[in-house]
Design a protein that fits this description.
Elements (H helix, E strand, L loop, with lengths): L6 H14 L6 E4 L5 E3 L2 E2 L6 H7 L7 E4 L4 E4 L5 H7 L4 H8 L3 E3 L1 H12 L4 E4 L6 E2 L4 E2 L3 H12 L4 E4 L1 H9 L3 H21 L2 H6 L3 H14 L9 E4 L21 E5 L2 E2 L2 E2 L2 E5 L6 H20 L6 H18 L8 H7 L27 E4 L2 E4 L4 E4 L2 E5 L4 E3 L11
Parallel strand pairs: 5-6, 7-10
Antiparallel strand pairs: 1-4, 2-3, 4-5, 8-9, 11-12, 12-15, 13-14, 16-19, 17-18, 19-20
Helix pairs in contact: 1-2, 1-4, 8-10, 11-12, 12-13
Amino acid sequence: MEGDFNAEFFRANRARLRELFTGRAPIVITGSSQVQQSADTAYPFTQDKNFWYLTGIDVADAVLVMEPEKEYIILPPRSSVQDTFDGAFDASVFEEISGVRSVHDSEAGWKILDARLKKVKHVATLSPLPAYLDVYGMFTNPARRVLARRMRSVNPELELLDIRDHVARLRSIKQPVELEAIQSAIMLTAKAIEKYTTAKKLEVYRFAYELEADIRQLFAKSGSDHAFSPIISSGKQSCVLHSVDLKHSLGEGELVQLDIGASFHGYAADISRARASGEPSKRQQAIHAAVLEVQSYALGLLKPGVLLRDYEQKVEQFMGEKLRELLLIKTISSEAVREYFPHATSHFLGLDTHDVGDYDRPLEPGMVITCEPGIYVPAEGIGVRIEDDILITATGNENLSSSLTRDLLQ
């Protein structure tokens, strides 16, 4: 990550965190760990976004230490094999990127930190997640758990203060350079959708992976990649919300549902559109029109001071009215609505596609969220989701992806 994300950006983020966390305890934050894929091959490394936000460094298992009077980075242990194949560390490069003036190797850095840990009662850090998240069916990165164990091995009485909310509060308000990166990612995503989802183009693609290959190539030629696993589906498959299997065919007469986003300097776009390769049926048009109405209603609610939980309830009620008009439900209730609209309307967007943010705090200017109502009718093989990326402004909101048409036919 380069460009305008220079040392001053990361230095200022650290200063803001130190102001928000008013205690004098050391702040100790780790980057992600490299994880094995198979044999001697690792999965592509993705840095912990909180660690990057504070340092700009893309090194596995690096540790940031912030004291009231000083700060330093501890690099991970390094084998000669890693130095030979991956290149040796250059501390001066990390100092230049992060603006942290002291970068230590593992032995020297931990010697300094260990001495400090023996003298304190509290350390502020990002609390580890459980090893396994049942709701997502996935293991979490071990780095935070390893750090917690390492610190408590030095001082078993150490109390860890969780500062996840502090960092999330900072990250949820986007700075101008972050908004520029998000807008660039949105423009690239819109370009891909405009280029490859015309009616003539969609007639050519037989499988979802063919369409994805063209999108990925366009991203790659711009030095970008997918911000998340792309979703491209049609028919009943479009009713699977996170359908990332691209081997299925794109059926004739079915709407093609796309949910994609480019990444620019690590910041994500997240845009959804439904497209038709030929003249859509009246039923497809009716469901698409209903989703459009719900999105327009939702956009009219988004402004500073709004609580997303209250907003979601209002959108749910309005969606119920549309579902009743479509004769999908008879009585509006949360249970009835969620059968056809099973996900939230909005989530925060930034360094992560589902970015950090407090859903119990009012919206503030500078926040970026999605607006993505959808209707899914598996029995009819119709799934429609329309998603745009929205900046909360002082007077309301700005649709950052409004230039991309929401029409079924392009």
